[in-house]
Amino acid sequence: PPRILTLEEPVLHLEHCIAFAVHGNPAPTLHWLHNGQVLRETEIIHMEFYQQGEVSEGCLLFNKPTHYNNGNYTIVATNQLGSANQTIKGHFLEKPFPGRIFSLSYWDFLQSKGLTMTPEFLCPHSKAFFFQVSIAVGLAAFACVLLVVLFIMINKYGRRSKFGMKG
């Protein structure tokens, strides 16, 4: 059955790497869990390993991880004879703005400042939203008409020579 030989905390090389070595014959299939959920490999998080005899060695690689990637990483090795798993804590970045005010939701923050905006007020399906859009469109149309009138007036009256002089 598979046996996990090593599992190391993340180290920064070119990318962050959680190094591992797994022994098993037949060669086990490997997959990862992040906080108990199956980890899908992407361009940002992917596994690279090579098989040398009965030992698989490699890294779970992270390209510029953030605080969202912090958590417990579990490697699971499985073959026909059994399975093995081991967990390690991965800590990449601190959560930004750890103060109390930033742990509130945006709407709680606005209310704490005395603002009464609610999510319904900004909802694109609400009457207030359509009213706001109609006001914005009306102001834009008024500005366009005003600019056209000014342009016409400047062209009509701006061509007269001053003091009756012809140039």
UniProtKB/TrEMBL annotation:
Q: Which domain of life is it from?
A: Eukaryota
InterPro entries attached here?
A: Ig-like_dom_sf (IPR036179), Ig-like_fold (IPR013783), Ig_I-set (IPR013098), NTRK3 (IPR020446)
Q: Name one Pfam family in it.
A: I-set
The keyword Oxidoreductase is annotated on this UniProt entry: no
| Keyword field | Membrane, Transmembrane, Transmembrane helix
Query: Care to name a GO molecular-function term for this sequence?
Result: neurotrophin receptor activity
Cellular component terms per the entry's GO annotation: plasma membrane
Q: Where is the Immunoglobulin I-set domain?
A: 21-88
TM stretches of this protein:
129-154
Respond yes or no to whether keyword Endoplasmic reticulum is given for this record: no
- List the GO biological process terms: cell surface receptor protein tyrosine kinase signaling pathway
- Protein name (record): NTRK3 factor
Which gene underlies this protein? Ntrk3_1
